[in-house]
Amino acid sequence: MSEQSATAAAKEMIEFDEAFTLHHRTVFRTARSVVQDCGLAEDVTQEVFIRLYKHKDSIADAEMLRPWLIRVALNVARNTLRGNIRANTRDENYVKESV
């Protein structure tokens, strides 16, 4: 790895760490307001920051980062709830069939 690419990678990690430090609480609170569970909210928060890391190049304007994170947190939280509802319904159907 060249020195320039190592420097660029280090800068990228610092920027990601700064974004995480600045916005973690907001993302967590947004997720918790939807899922109503701290454990699920942590899972949602982790997924949001994974998506940020994967899509960091698509967010050109720093002012758009916070709204982007909130929107992704809301979407992931809602999808998490939908998944849990489906899983609970399948479990209930299995119990009914077993009885």
Task: Describe the protein's architecture and organization.
The chain has about 100 residues and is an all-alpha fold. It has a single domain, classed as Rna Polymerase Sigma Factor, Chain: A. Helix content is about 85%, strand content about 0%. The protein is built from three helices and no strands. The radius of gyration is 18 Å and the shape is elongated. The protein starts with a helix and ends with a helix. The model has no long low-confidence stretch (mean pLDDT about 85).
- The secondary structure category is mainly alpha
| Number of spatially distinct domains | 1
* H-E string: HHH
Query: Could you give the distance between the termini?
Result: 62 Å
pLDDT < 50 runs, ≥5 residues: none
CATH topology: Rna Polymerase Sigma Factor, Chain: A
Q: What's the number of helices?
A: 3
User: Rg to the nearest angstrom?
Assistant: 18 Å
- CATH class group: Mainly Alpha
**Averaged pLDDT, please?**
86
Quaternary status: single chain
The CATH architecture designation is Orthogonal Bundle
| CATH homologous superfamily annotation | RNA polymerase sigma factor, region 2, helix turn helix motif
What general outline do the C-alpha atoms trace? elongated
Strand content: under 5%
Helix content: over 70%
**Count of DSSP strands:** 0
Major sheet, described briefly?
none
